[in-house]
Write a structure and sequence with these properties.
Pfam families: MazG (PF03819)
CATH superfamily of the largest domain: MazG-like
Mean pLDDT: 88
CATH architecture of the largest domain: Orthogonal Bundle
Domain NTP pyrophosphohydrolase MazG-like: 30-107
CATH class of the largest domain: Mainly Alpha
Structural class: mainly alpha
Low-confidence stretches: none
Number of strands: 0
Radius of gyration: 22 Å
Protein name: Nucleotide pyrophosphohydrolase
Strand content: under 5%
Number of domains: 3
Oligomer: single chain
Order of helices and strands: HHHHHHHHH
C-alpha cells in the first residue's frame, strides 16, 4: 500500500538503523564492501528500464529496483551518521540545495520558481554549464570529473558530449557505414567487436585509448586557444 502519510522515509531510516544495531551481517558492512552491491543494484535497475518495465503493468518491478538502489544510499549515509559526520537528512538537504543552485533556469537563488523558463535545451545547457563552471573554477578542462572506470563506450559518449558543450572541435571522424537506427548501430558495433576478437585485440582497451587520445587532443587545442 502507498504510504501517503509521510512516514515511509522516517520508518525506513529507523529500520536500517535497527538492522545495523541488531543484524551481525548488516553491522559488518562497510563503504568498501557495499560498493559491489551498489554497482549490482544500479545495473539491475538499468536492466529493468531497458526491458521496458516502466509502464503501469510493470510498476512493481521498477519500484522494487528503485528501492534496492535507495537502500544502498541509506546504508552509506547511516554508516556516516554512526561516525557523527552526516545523516541521510544531510544528504537530502545537500541534493536539494545543489538542484536549486545548478538549475537557475528554473529556480531563483531563494529556491522559489521563476516566472518563465527556457524553451530550448541549448539555453538550459548554457545556464547549467555556467553554474558548474562558477562552482568549480579550478577544473582543468571539460573532461575532469568523468569517472575513468566507466565502460569505454559510455566514456567515449560522455567525452564527446563534454567536448561539444565546451565548444571544442570533436576531432576528425573516419568514414564509417551509415547507421540509421540503434539496431543498425548495434550491428556495426558488434561487427567491430567480432573483428577485434578475431585479430586478438581488446575492443574495450582500444576504445579507452582512443578516448584518451581524443581528450588529450581537445585539451591541447584548448590550451593553444588560451595562448592565442
Amino acid at each position: 500500500m502507498p504510504a501517503a502519510d509521510g512516514t515511509a522515509v522516517p520508518r525506513l531510516l529507523e529500520v536500517v538503523a535497527q538492522l545495523r544495531e541488531h543484524c551481525l551481517w548488516t553491522r559488518a558492512l562497510t563503504h568498501e564492501s557495499l560498493v559491489e552491491y551498489l554497482i549490482e543494484e544500479a545495473h539491475e535497475l538499468a536492466d529493468a528500464i531497458a526491458a521496458g518495465h516502466t509502464g503501469t503493468a510493470d510498476a512493481a518491478e521498477l519500484k522494487g529496483e528503485l528501492a534496492d538502489v535507495l537502500y544502498q544510499v541509506v546504508l552509506h549515509a547511516r554508516l556516516q551518521e554512526e561516525q557523527g559526520r552526516f545523516s541521510f537528512e544531510d544528504v537530502a538537504a545537500h541534493l536539494t540545495g545543489k538542484l536549486v543552485r545548478r538549475n537557475r533556469h528554473v529556480f531563483r537563488a531563494d529556491g522559489t520558481l521563476r516566472e518563465s523558463f527556457p524553451e530550448t535545451l541549448e539555453e538550459i545547457e548554457r545556464s547549467y554549464d555556467a553554474v558548474k563552471a562558477a562552482e568549480q573554477p579550478g577544473r582543468r578542462g571539460p573532461f575532469e570529473g568523468i569517472p575513468a572506470s566507466l565502460p569505454a563506450l559510455t566514456l567515449a559518449a560522455k567525452s564527446l558530449d563534454r567536448a561539444r558543450r565546451a565548444g571544442a572541435v570533436p576531432g576528425r571522424s573516419r568514414a564509417a557505414a551509415p547507421a540509421s537506427s540503434e539496431d543498425e548501430l548495434g550491428d556495426l558495433l558488434l561487427d567491430l567487436v567480432r573483428t577485434a576478437a578475431a585479430q586478438g585485440l581488446d575492443p574495450e582497451l582500444a576504445l579507452r585509448k582512443a578516448v584518451g587520445r581524443f581528450q588529450a587532443g581537445v585539451m591541447h587545442e584548448q590550451g593553444r586557444g588560451d595562448l592565442d
